[in-house]
Amino acid sequence: MNQEIIERTVYLVSDSTGITAETFSNAVLSQFDDTIKFKQIHLPFIFSIEKAKEVVSRINQNALDTGNQPIVFSTLVNHEIMNTVRSANGIFLDIFGTFVSNIEQLIGHKSNNSIGRSHNVTNTEKYRNRIDAINFSLSHDDGQFVHQLNQADVILIGVSRCGKTPTSLYLAMQYAIKAANFPLTPDDFERNTLPSTIIPYKNKLFGLSIHPERLSEVRNERRPNSSYSTIEQCRYEVTESEKMMRRDGIPWLSTTTKSIEEIATTVLQEIGLNRRLA
Amino acid sequence: MNQEIIERTVYLVSDSTGITAETFSNAVLSQFDDTIKFKQIHLPFIFSIEKAKEVVSRINQNALDTGNQPIVFSTLVNHEIMNTVRSANGIFLDIFGTFVSNIEQLIGHKSNNSIGRSHNVTNTEKYRNRIDAINFSLSHDDGQFVHQLNQADVILIGVSRCGKTPTSLYLAMQYAIKAANFPLTPDDFERNTLPSTIIPYKNKLFGLSIHPERLSEVRNERRPNSSYSTIEQCRYEVTESEKMMRRDGIPWLSTTTKSIEEIATTVLQEIGLNRRLA
């Protein structure tokens, strides 16, 4: 028995980058199972009536071609532009509208209806902190630069390829967290002590670990058939690193089944860092 | 005349990372002006009734302490957990609910109500592409590794400190785009030609530029009072790089007033790259 596949086009229409529309759309559409294929089309920077009219043409053409009304997720704020896009032959979903009205009622204060404010703030201290954090995390990746570790908000530690680098960069990029990272290596396990460089910053350390099988897979993709990638080596390093973190009372988590976002969120929670951008 | 400042606590409650709730909340709240202070409190990983009850206590306590009902943005999916949190003394805004129902009606198909799917996909090809892209962009930052440039989806070029590195990392992190970047230096301007390494990949090049005054500010933060940071040097480099990009027909944009998100979105649009994660 063939299961019917339902296909629908989803337009993400925004007056700015469309990143909020995209995050929102991904989350809402992931609530549906694989028998429904959503084709997302991004239409950012729709900040004029002229552009809005082009959007209307595209939506109408799609409805004609597919025989189905497409879904339109809108984060448009300007009423004139929104009403133009709303006139197209699609199911128009105004992502902000309902919630902004709710909050206006609650606080008895009107919103600005200003365009694209959330990703348009380059000249603020927050934005500079974020760029600084990215530069910090880059230069303090993999223990390559050991000065200014006192400025780190967190220092991620763990064996090679357990997820330290993407997590550090994500923390910096999204939350302006100065996240350094430092590898735990076989040398450290032989000496049976944390790398001396990071011992003074023990209260900033957070450990990442990973199942040895998964680690071996990841390392094999990078260096196939090396002794570095064998399951024995991976088991040894993971066991030793977890032993070390437990002994030294360093909080840690396993990254095996976690996405960058899940690891980063957990790190933030565990070490109680405020989200600087919020 | 003093303008009254309105303060409100906003809880972001999610069964997963809360990143969607956060992006959404930042966008909606940025529609209000500075006379309203929203204090956002992140409560991720609320995946049990027990945790939901703790959330209720926190919200109720806040309502008591402040004398105002807090705003609760929820991306909870499980009905039992949602109804528990909804019972708290706050204004409960169900971010997904309305839209999921709309789409269910439209396509005649029920959603899964499954928890935290959008940031919980580590073992998929998409996720691996993303990690690969991050590693690629890191190793191809600032022209440091010139092999495998043929695998790049885009190569950003421009003078030192014009925004290439954060943009490359953002493209990789968010969209699994393999974004290399390569500096244009005074040497290139003297030779009056693009760096020979990147000439074979001309169709992948995208240029970033910046106002000389802003560039001088950024460089001065990094290397105060150096010849590298003088306004004269910055004017020279910016003029020459723009001349080179124009002459060689390379698309480019000015980053001066643009956030990382705005630059990345524009690059994606201009070079017509599909968003691999979408």
Automatic annotation (TrEMBL), chains A, B:
ADP binds at residues 158-165. It is an enzyme of class 2 (transferase). Keywords: Kinase, Nucleotide-binding, Serine/threonine-protein kinase, Transferase. The keyword Endoplasmic reticulum does not apply. It catalyses: [pyruvate, water dikinase] + ADP = [pyruvate, water dikinase]-phosphate + AMP + H(+); [pyruvate, water dikinase]-phosphate + phosphate + H(+) = [pyruvate, water dikinase] + diphosphate. Its EC number is 2.7.11.33, 2.7.4.28. Belongs to the pyruvate, phosphate/water dikinase regulatory protein family. PSRP subfamily. Bifunctional serine/threonine kinase and phosphorylase involved in the regulation of the phosphoenolpyruvate synthase (PEPS) by catalyzing its phosphorylation/dephosphorylation. This is Putative phosphoenolpyruvate synthase regulatory protein.
